[in-house]
## 1
Amino acid sequence: MNKWRGLAAGLAAGAAGTTALNAVTYLDMAARGRPTSSTPEDTVEKLAAKVGVVIPGDEGTRKNRLTGIGALLGLVAGSAVGGALGLARAFGFRPKPLVAGVLTGVGAMAGTNAPMAALGVTDLRTWSATDWLSDAVPHLAYGLVTAAVVQGLDRD
């Protein structure tokens, strides 16, 4: 697999993985009746304040913009991690599918939770076991789907 094809395969795989992550998250919300997390919007708000960008609009409009930007950043993050996996595969990183899936899921989880913790959006030290499972299971689904799609798109 050449690097450009690896990147393209990874981006597509990351989008598929993000869909799996969202599906597992929404299934959990439906099954347990839990509310959506505000961490994507809170992260956007903190990032915007840190770089001096004003999110315009009245209270309702601004909240909707934060929600939209938070969701878009999730799609970008999922595609970027998938792109990185595709590039890694193109450069010879070829672990077993389960290993690749777990590593990808852990990488995506760390890559999204670390900035939220650094910005003070969440304190990972206070998370309960249920909180960790609610985050880990969707990220594992993301990783497994992303790794499977990257492997499936590799014709080499």
Note: The CA atoms of residues 105 and 143 lie 4 Å apart.
## 2
Amino acid sequence: MNKIELWGYTICDNGEIFGIRGKKFKNNKQIKINGKIYFTSHIVYYAFNQNTFDLEDRNNIIIHLDGNELNNRLENLKVESKKIIVQGENNIKSKLTDKQVEEIRELYKKGKEEKVDKNDPRVKYSYRQLADMYGVSHTLIKGIIKGHFRNKENYIIK
């Protein structure tokens, strides 16, 4: 087992991190270093790859090869670009298809353009009405319409 001393911590390639007083950190904990908070997986990877990994680069993420986020062994960690994360309807957590997202935008836009009475239920849809139609929350609908969610131009995670 290899160990590296960094910022007063002892970092081991088996994923263990020991604090300044020798107390072991939990694998899913975050560590505050110089006023910034980092995941333990990032610290372990950085300790052994300081020349090739920039801890401050927000365009890269650390993924766990076995899918277990508690396994911070160095051989289980890999750097990937945020661009590779599946977004849109192909994301496993996605509740709407890309076609449904476009329908929502069109329905909302149509009601705005028709300039119908504010309470006319025939054409103008509220966030809550659209949410009920598609079985999602009104905050998701609002985010879609305002362009915060499911905006293809912003598909790179920030």
Note: Helices lie at 40-48, 98-114, 127-134, 138-146.
## 3
Amino acid sequence: MKALPSSLTVILLSLTPAMMSAATMPLAQDNTGYYWYTRDNWSGGSDTQTGFSFGDPGTGLLHARRNYQYYGGASRHWDSCDAYLQCSLEDLEASQIESAFLWLHVETNSSSAATTLRHLATQSTAATGNASQKLDGTVDVLSSSALVVGWNKIDVTAFILSDLGKSYTFSAFSIPQFGQNQDEDRILSFHGADAAAEWRPYLEVTAIPEATAASLCALGLCALIFRRRIFI
């Protein structure tokens, strides 16, 4: 019996890395933001303000935050914030995806406790790409304690594939404010889509292009036929 020619083996192996392609998909301007609460409480009354921001002016920073302090019967809460992100799934097909990573650039991560990056598993309200929808995640992706200052590469492959399987247009994620703790400012700040281009979050998807996948199948078939003829 004749062995398969080494030259053909080399050709097949050299095509394996080439059939994969990585694409970076920066989040659009309205895909990120945070909902903020400014609340001062005291005996006999309260004053509350709320609002939504697509990023701090000048920096584009987003925040998940809880600042709580207690003074002799007077409780005060400042800058309580929940952060939101939505990633476009346009032009993605589940059958072609090898991996998907969400890249976040963290500016500040200061807390003795942790909050959690969460994914919205079932969208009773369809995500439209606008973070001001304030769609809260329901499934834990990553603890904030695992995030470092600088770039963070977060594996969201399973969540992206799940959303594509449900024909969702966007994947929705959120980071809620930290749990309450007396006399402590708990804050996670990271750059959103309003930040300078080099700090904006993005989705990195590695996929098998459809044309390449078809070519690979054809090549594999030819290899089998060629191998069969050699062994006969």
Note: Residues 1-18, 212-219, 222-227 have pLDDT under 50 and may be disordered.
## 4
Amino acid sequence: MTVLKHTLGLFLHPDEEWRKIRNERHSFIQVFMSHMPILALIPVLAAYYGVTQVGWSVTGGDVVKLTPESALVLCGFTYLAQLVAVYVLGEYINWMAHSFGVKEEGAQRHYEGTALSVYAATPLMLAGVIMLYPEPWVVVSVYFAAIAYAVYLLYEGTPILMNIPKGQAFIYSSSIVTIGLVLSVVVMISTVIAWGMGFGPVYID
């Protein structure tokens, strides 16, 4: 499958895989539309099943579950938020490319920044499988590991994919991580606003 074309390689030999990605010609459809709509479904579908069928408990108390209707709405918001966040991050990377000396070959716009955003986010999407068993401490542990590897991929991939010196790439990568954190805060604030508008979780009694 196209969506899994580079996924395994990014875990086994990331530097080599980033070079393969660099040698491809990127269009928005090839990079974003063929990957993110499918990858973003992984945590959403897992979460829907986990919070409606399995549930979770706090400090060994009663198992908590959401109603299917409530979970569907929240998962829908989460799916859209993931797509928007990765898209915006990719656009930021593309926009900042000239400031860091990234040169495009030819007149056609390329989407190396979008590719960097999508592939760096892949560990976070795959980690969403853990939502099948949504115990808070398990989910937090897995996502911390996924975030760490996503940041590693970002720092490793930036000098290769953007074809710039490592010194520049380090600053570039750091600015990308900063924007990623800002986007995370925006998503959390949007979630709080949505809850305040009546789209919060509804628990099964």
Note: The chain has one domain: 14-196.
